[in-house]
Please model this.
Amino acid sequence: MSASEQPATIEPWVRDILRCPVTGAELVEGTAPDGTPELRSTAPQRPLAYPVRDGVPVLLAEEAREL
Model:
């Protein structure tokens, strides 16, 4: 497993303050279909997932993937 395929392992206190830039919802750790880590929005009205690259969440709306 390469470094980019490791779980997000973002410090819990950091994850607690991060929010989806589109909906403002809480983010939880997940895994993309290709096995890479991502942060998933908990917003039921518009669930989105954001990639985590080299341990850094990419919280840009244009990088989001619809769930």
Notes: The mean pLDDT is 88. Residues 3-66 form one domain. The CA atoms of residues 26 and 42 lie 6 Å apart.
